[in-house]
Amino acid sequence: MNRIRSVFLVLGALLAFVVAPIARAEGQTRKWTVDGVEREAIVHLPAKTAVKSPLILAFHGHGGRAANVQRTMLLQDEWPEAVVVYPQGLATKTTRDPEGTRAGWQNRVGEFGDRDIKFVDAITESLRNEGWVDDSRVFATGHSNGGGFTYALWNARPGMLTAVAPVAAGSLDVLKLTPLACMHVAGRTDKIVPFAGQERTMAAVRRINGCTDDDGKPWAKDCTRWDSTKRAPFVAMIVDGGHEYPREAPPLIVRFFKEQSPRGTEPNRDAPRAEGPSDRGPWNNDIGVFRIDGHTGEVARVHTFARAGASSVVRLEDGALLAAFQWFPEGDDRKHSFDRIALSRSTDGGKSWSAPKTAEIKGLSDDERAPFDPTLVALDDGRVRLYMTRNAKPGSGPSFSRIGSAISSDGERFRIEDGVRFAVDGEQVIDCAVTRFGPAWHLICPIQGGGGKAYRAISDDGIHFKRAAEIVREPNVRWLGALTAVNGAMRFYGTSDRGIWCTESVDGVMWSYVDGADTAISKVPGADPGVAFLPNGDAIVTATVMKPIMKPTR
Asked: Which fold is adopted by the domain 305-546?
């Protein structure tokens, strides 16, 4: 009996060993087409319904597979509330693989046509526009060649990332980095990426991050932390091992990521809750209102709309300014206002503004969520048209966002206009910019996952838009901002990892950049701008700006 019992115990243990990995959620395999090449990644989502969440991008080493590292890194288990993405690399030539027979990543900006940076842009853009990404908590980590790509991504997209954690890796362009919270994991006996070289990389990162010039402080087992004068702390995890991925690393990497943006679990956009002192979300952004002197180019911040984002501003026929934005007023007694479009008016050229008030929008269907991402256009007859993104409520079945509109005679009460202004079958279309230039109306929407690409449509009446050829720019810019007619051309003021950018066109087909020296608007700190011009040549710019992150006391 004892022998039989022992056999069953052994079999049970073996079955548990075999079955456990199969029982673990493997994530979803998703695909994107980037520059004509099909790319894929394994995506672990924290819930059935989209909710803004931390995003972790985790890159395998040279010769690795996304399907394998999801089982070794297990970041989805360490942070169940996060969206965790394990992208799959492409065949990559290296000094150790000169024929390029194994999968890997670019290790510096510009290498391989920036194919992998474009891939990351596509991943983050599509997840963001599905409602999954909290832009204040985007993280990257990778092992070996994947760690080298993490450093390259830091170089290419510093404004996108909250913190990084390269493992067993180095940086080919470390001196080009800008301050960013970083944890580096290394093995003392690493022969593939020699430890001495990793030490030099870590020392350079500490200098760039403005870390204290001491020996650091113990942070966890095998880990030392350096404080930073630039709010970019550095942690070194040094283990007695070689080039292998340390099994102790994932929980510590997640701990480091959490410390850079501490908060609780994100609520659904349509289900607000009381905010704790460490919570972060879109309500932790403000809309800054800036006035740019048309003669000197001087930029002055003149007002702030607290707990707001995604703004638009327009000058009305009577000379008043009207601003619209997403609003997240604090307090449970304001649930009717939470994450709704709000309006504010200025009658003195932007010096003072009325208290935000939720826009009254009539004509929405019962199964439709509140519209979002407003764009205002003043009509010749004194009315105001509000273009916005419309979609079904969560749980109402599959649907795709599209652009709709509403009309108002007073700039406060709007009624939905029948039909769809712009949509693309099978694609999410959100956050348009619209202007009238000459006899035609022009509409631009960023393509989700398309990097520097945008949909374009034209109309004779501002209602019936016809899709036109897409616009293509560099992948580090986004067509997220304002379109306006100025100086005999259309100008688009958009968002990028370097700040506000500007391009102009006279036909909507050919676009040329407007140098920052020629437009002071590029000096405005923030993203997703709204722009209106005053009769004296001054400009009023609204832009999303992030509140300072308050670190908890220990």
From this structure: Neuraminidase (2.120.10)
